[in-house]
Amino acid sequence: MILGSLLPLSMAPFNYWILGIISVGGFSFLILKNSAEELSFKLIFFRSFSYAVGLYAVGVSWIFVSIHRYGQASIELSTILVVLFIIFLSILFALPFTVISKLNHLQVPSKSIYKIYCSAFFFLFIFPSLWVIGEWFRGWVFSGFPWLFIGYPHSDTWLSGWAPVTGVLGISWIIAFCGTLLGFFLQLKTNIIIKDRPARFIFIITTGSFLLATFFWVGGLYLQKINWTKPLNKTISIGLLQPAISLWRTWDPKELNNILFQFRQDSKLLLDNDLVVWPEAAIPIFRNKVSDYLDSITEDAVKSDTAIIVGVPTIYQTQLQSDEIDESNYFNSALALGKGLGIYHKQHLVPFGEYVPFEKWLRGGIRFFDLPMSAFSPGPNNQINITIKNNITIGTSICYEVAFSELVRKSANDSNILLTMSNDSWFGKTIGPKQHFQIARMRAIENKKALIRATNDGISALIDSNGRVQFTIPSFNRGILEGTLNARSGSTPFGRSGSYPIIIFSLVWILIGLCLKPAIKVSH
């Protein structure tokens, strides 16, 4: 559990990335301990589960603030819900590692020459592969929670060069490899793996492993220098609004006119730019209820030759086959006005925040399940990107969606600039917004496209195609931001293939491990 609690410290806002390698190394030592006694399914599951409890208890502690303070649940209920969430995530984390109990055949007798090689193979290739499969699995099962991946802290290290090639999962594999290499050295140090074996075997394995780790790091530095996408020689001037409006004001009907007035006044200060962006759900009422207001914003934008993208909930009526009843679909949307064209509807919704699973049973029972705007429908797949003047296309994601690399890359391939709109007020003054921002930066690096991030109270920023922050507004402060970003075309290897290569690579290593048993038996 202690080792697991170290892992979030490698991520934002702490950024002690070396602790990630140490944490993984200690974890690999515990569940791959190569002694004469085989580790049982139950023991491996328990150790993996305990590690994950430490990881999530620290890493997603901000969920308590969301549920208790803004969901208005009692302390007792909030604690129960958070504990259940941590237990659920910890079970998902532990499941892939239970495969290790099926690989105990790699622990051959200590007198066999294969013991060293099989143990090294077990540590250095199978464990990182299981780690990556686990991250991928948690990223989609039960709608997915792709948070706290060990690759995210490396947006500022040499390993970021691998992001346009393999995505964040590829970096996770490398970090897991480096961690298990540390665990393997611990095995050697404690004489668990070998006793009285020729030194040349140890030298071959350790030297080869160290050279491979060096290749990953130096290779990442080399890959950073490759221009995976092409500049269009079109510099876009951008203005961002960070209103810092509390959630209590946002959903207070009496404050609506004040909120609309604030946005219009702040926007007027930015109309000299090519693009102005408001945050997610900046207008806390359905589009059709404020059509006159949006028309006035559009008029201001057209006069200034500016595109404005606003966050606003929308409603669409769908006529059913009965020809008698209309079905309403509600969307969390990003709407382009003025010299902008198009609308984006959020596709990946936040469970219990934007929709309620098992709604029939949960609605009305607890206030937390009746939050404002918690009955959205997911937007359709393959939506057309928003376009602004000079035919610049904007690949849009809203809030939580930026954590889904596959979703972002699909829109990034056909866009020139990326945009993510969010309202991180739900996280409060916790580590959540910093983690969210770090994830967004990785999306820019993976796709080698500049990224705009507009939020209600931080962190709003302009990020270049290398993930470097160019301009930002201090968190929890009302303010505006003006800057420029370069539009780019083309796609990266990750943009074209996604995470599939690293997933297949990992599965192949696991299958090889499962198939080694007959070969080892024959060698005896």
Task: Give a structural overview.
With 524 residues, the protein is α/β, with parallel strands linked by helices. It has two domains: 250 residues, no CATH class; 216 residues, 4-Layer Sandwich (Nitrilase/N-carbamoyl-D-aminoacid amidohydrolase). It contains 16 helices and twelve strands. The strands form two sheets. The chain has a six-stranded mixed β-sheet. A six-stranded mixed β-sheet has the order 6-7-8-9-10-11, covered by helices on one side. The relative contact order is 0.13.
SSE map:
Layout: H1 2-6, H2 18-31, H3 41-59, H4 62-70, H5 75-97, H6 114-138, H7 163-189, H8 199-223, E1 230-242, H9 247-250, H10 256-268, E2 275-277, H11 291-303, E3 307-319, E4 326-338, E5 343-345, H12 359-362, E6 386-388, E7 392-398, H13 405-412, E8 417-422, H14 432-447, E9 451-455, E10 460-463, E11 469-473, E12 479-489, H15 493-497, H16 500-523
Parallel strand pairs: 1-2, 2-3, 7-8, 8-9
Antiparallel strand pairs: 1-12, 3-4, 4-5, 6-7, 9-10, 10-11
